Each structure stands twice: as C-alpha cells, then as structure tokens.
Amino acid sequence: MKSEGKRLSNREYDARRRQRPWRKLYSTPQWRALRAAQLAKEPLCNRCADRGRVVAATVAHHVKAHKGDEVLFFDAGNLASLCADCHDIDEQRIERGGKARQQVDEDGWPLEV
C-alpha cells in the first residue's frame, strides 16, 4: 500500500501535468485523427505484445516526450500503441524516474529480459 506522502506526491504531480499549456493539443481535430490512425494501424498494445500478451491498444503514446513541441507532438513516427495499463502505469513510472513493471511468466516468476 502506498504511503500517504507518496499518494500526495502523485496527486501533485498529476495536477501539475494537467496545467501544462500543451494539454489543449489533445483536444484538436488533428490529434484525434492522428490518434485514430495510429490505433487503426497498430490495434494491439506494443508493450503487451513484447510480453507475449494480446491486448487491445487504447492509447497513442508519444515515444519521445514532446514537451509542447508541436512538430514532435503531431509526428506520426513518434507514436506507439499502448493499452491504458501500460501507458498509465509503466510510462508514468518512467516519467517519474522509475522503471517499467518487470515481466513475469504465468506463474509470476520474473523473466530474464
């Protein structure tokens, strides 16, 4: 279970992310079309596929963080298809300086990567 301090830190981080000026780019027709094209091109989660799982992708993820750079934001070559869990858990961990979840086999034992 997360400590109260960690939970508060995560909430503050998320609040700061929502205030970033480029958040408005995600509501543009250009982004919506680009996202739909990415998910049509690669309908399965790339990360889950690497783990031997078949899971539908629901997120068009920016491989290289755009940080407001509109050219990078709208670059179709900078997108990967992920499921919500892989995006919201693994990528958030990586953004915060951590590592993605470790891969495990059917019995829960860590896999050599």
Description:
The chain is mainly alpha-helical and 113 residues long. The chain has one domain. The protein has a two-stranded antiparallel ribbon with strand order 1-2. The two termini are 27 Å apart. The model has no long low-confidence stretch (mean pLDDT 80).
Concise description?
This protein has 113 residues and is mostly helical.
Which keywords apply here?
113 residues; mainly alpha; 43% helix; flat
SS element count, helices: 5
- What general form does the structure show? flat
Mean pLDDT: 80
Strand sequence of the main sheet, in spatial order? Answer: 1-2
Number of strands: 2
Give the total of domains. 1
Report how far apart the termini are.
Answer: 27 Å
Which percent band covers the strand fraction? Answer: 5-15%
As a percent range, the share of helical residues equals: 40-55%
Low-confidence stretches: none
Major sheet description: 2 strands, antiparallel
SS content category: mainly alpha
String of helices and strands:
HHHEHEH
Rg for CA atoms: 16 Å
Topology readout:
Elements: H1 4-18, H2 29-41, H3 46-50, E1 59-62, H4 70-73, E2 79-82, H5 84-95
